[in-house]
Amino acid sequence: MTRPIKAQIDLAALKSNYQLAKTLSAGPALAVIKANAYGHGAVRCAQALSDTADGFAVASLEEARELRQAGIQSPILLLEGFFEATELSEIAALDCWLVIHASWQVTALLQYLASNDDGAKTWHVWLKVDTGMHRLGLTAEDAVHAYAQLKTSLHIQDIKLMTHFANADDVSDAKTLTQMQVLQQLVDQVGFSGEISVANSAAILGWQDLKITPVMPRWARPGLMLYGANPFYGTTAQTAGEALQAVMTLSSQVISVQTIQAGEAIGYGGLFQAQETMRIGVVACGYADGYPRTVVHAPAMVAGQMTRVIGRVSMDMLFINLENLPDVTVGADVELWGKHVSVDAVAVSANTLAYELLCNVKRTPFIYR
Ligand SMILES: *Cc1c(COP(=O)(O)O)cnc(C)c1O
User: Strand pairing of 272-273 and 248-260?
Assistant: First the structure.
């Protein structure tokens, strides 16, 4: 028997989640497939979505290149734009859409366009405004200037305005509204009437009535929700989130069953100690596969029944509680997360988010269906 761990990827669920994102946001949506599609496999996910998605978003030219090499012809947005001006010729060759988030990028792009008359090639620029997150983006003031400069170029066919929310995962936090107001002021100031893009998964699911005038097409940028996880920390039953379907199922098997006596401890550091005689299962999955080492009593499912991870997770193995599961033996299937065990719940028990867990999965075979 080979090591039984595997990550099964349900591409039909991915498509269904994308449709939900589009329905909720009532407009075009870029499927965010950066970081290898949050650990799910960027090429396979892009192929599955290629006939329905309005476009894709990635973090780097390398990620875009991989998609183009695999034959993906849809628009691809580079979410961080270019890191150096030398990337621009390949960005043109791969026909990527470009985020511009800093003044130096405006200058570099215009310089490139002035000296490389690549004829018919037209550019799509997403001008990113920092409305309060203070990560990437021009200040509203600098954006006014950048917008005017970019508009002068005949090679730039289209300029959209975009921003990113810092706290959209808290639906009671007014910061999202404040960020929208900053964007609205900019729209008014430059008399903007093109397309805008604001919503990540949390905004799509939790902030459906954000308004900007004049009403203009809005591109959503769903990431996490495409994979069936919930961006609202600590809640797995968020209303709209209930319609999301888990895409990745990480599963393995019990490879050893032990009976331990009261007072005996298991694993490294003896983190878990038996109160009375009990059975425990050893599962072939560890932190080298991406399972978080920091979980405390994470849920897991064994042979169709819910149980908990106990003791310390080691590199290749972890322990589950078989106390009330006398029928479970070596070879029993274990779902670490997926259709029955919410990846969000496992993330909470590791004091983190599903984002981090999904991105980290490695070493295991991936099976697509
Ligand atoms: C990653 C990213 C997204 C997607 O965010 P989710 O929370 O995963 O939906 C959207 N926009 C930008 C700019 C991003 O970097």
Answer: unpaired
Output the CA 146–ligand 1 centroid distance in Å: 23
64 in Cβ contact with 94 (< 8 Å): yes
* DSSP annotation string for 15-29: HHHHHHHHHHHTS-B
For residue 237, pLDDT over 70 is answered with no
For the chain, give the percent of residues with pLDDT over 90: 90
Residue 316 CB contacts under 8 Å (≥ 6 apart), including other chains = 284, 285, 286, 288, 289
For residue 244, give the nearest of 6, 19, 8, 35 by alpha carbon: 19
Is 34 marked active-site? yes
Q: Which of 15, 34, 128, 160 is catalytic?
A: 34
What is residue 165's DSSP assignment?
-
Is residue 268 part of the annotated active site? The answer reads yes
Quickly tell me which residue has 């639906």 as its tokens: 171
pLDDT at 241: 62
Phi then psi dihedrals of residue 61, to 5 deg: -60, -35
Find the distance separating the first CA and the last CA of the chain, reported in whole Å: 22
Q: Where are the alpha helices (DSSP H) in the chain?
A: 11-25, 34-38, 42-49, 61-69, 88-93, 103-115, 140-151, 175-190, 201-206, 343-349, 354-360
Question: What torsion, rounded to 10 degrees, do the Cα atoms 224, 66, 98, 109 define?
Answer: 150
The H-or-E segment that residue 162 falls in is strand 156-162
pLDDT surpassing 90 at residue 81: yes
The arrangement of strands across the sheet holding 76-78 comes to 30-32, 55-58, 76-78, 97-100, 123-128, 156-162, 196-197
| Residue 225 token pair | 């929700």
